[in-house]
């Protein structure tokens, strides 16, 4: 499997049940069969809706068929959006970053940086995490959360850190915070 200049070889025994297309000379033909064509058609239909949003977590953008579909929709439907949560560090040389800089409706978030609206930047909080914001921000952002003293020392340390949402476990914790408490339910 090749992903952004890195090569990994994964070897397992085929199961023969057809749930996965294994790399071979038949991959193109096999990817044109059911259920794959139906799934690709469905993805295209959903992404083509006005204001559609796709959040990916764990997809490495290594499949050219899926990428072609996603980028085609993003290029033709400006109201469709994709947010790619990329585990690990991002760099300006990363193809995912380059693709995102070309499309304002393709946001890429990495632990150290991101591309939002076609603009690259590293993470820096406007205000340090404090007692009022820690319950939410400690899930989304890993900072040292040091409080500045009366002289302002420690202010910059409390603003730096990494986004945690790119890690599937932290992303799930974030989604769980959106669940209504039983007393809030109607």
Describe the structure.
This protein folds into two domains: 31-122, no CATH class; 123-179, no CATH class. The protein is 28% helix and 18% strand. It is built from six helices and nine strands; from the N terminus they run E-E-H-H-E-H-E-H-E-E-E-H-E-E-H. The strands form three sheets. A five-stranded mixed beta sheet has the order 3-4-5-6-7, with helices on one face. Strands 1-2 form a two-stranded antiparallel ribbon.
List the helices and strands and how they pair.
Blueprint: E1 2-3, E2 6-7, H1 27-30, H2 36-47, E3 53-57, H3 64-76, E4 81-86, H4 95-101, E5 106-110, E6 113-116, E7 119-122, H5 134-140, E8 141-143, E9 161-163, H6 168-176
Parallel strand pairs: 3-4, 4-5
Antiparallel strand pairs: 1-2, 5-6, 6-7, 8-9
Helix pairs in contact: 2-3
The order of strands across the largest sheet is 3-4-5-6-7
Number of helices: 6
- Looking at the structure, what is the overall shape? globular
Parts with pLDDT < 50 across at least 5 consecutive residues:
none
Number of domains: 2
Compute the number of strand runs: 9
Q: State the distance separating the first and last CA atoms.
A: 48 Å
């Amino acid at each position: 499997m090749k992903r952004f200049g890195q090569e990994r070889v994964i070897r397992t025994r085929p199961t023969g049940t057809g749930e996965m297309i294994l790399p071979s000379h038949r991959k193109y033909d096999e990817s044109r069969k059911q259920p794959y064509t139906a799934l690709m058609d469905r993805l295209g239909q959903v992404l083509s809706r006005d204001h559609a949003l796709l959040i990916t977590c764990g997809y490495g953008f290594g499949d050219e068929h899926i990428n072609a579909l996603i980028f085609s929709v993003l290029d033709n439907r400006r109201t469709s959006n994709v947010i790619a949560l990329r585990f690990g560090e991002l760099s300006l040389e990363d193809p995912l970053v380059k693709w995102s800089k070309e499309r304002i409706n393709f946001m890429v978030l990495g632990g150290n940086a991101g591309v939002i609206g076609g603009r690259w930047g590293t993470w820096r909080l406007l205000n340090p995490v404090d007692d009022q914001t820690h319950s939410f921000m400690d899930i989304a952002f890993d900072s040292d959360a040091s409080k500045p003293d009366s002289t302002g020392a420690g202010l910059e340390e409390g603003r730096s850190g990494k986004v945690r949402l790119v890690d599937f476990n932290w992303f799930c914790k974030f989604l769980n915070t959106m669940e209504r408490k039983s007393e809030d339910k109607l």
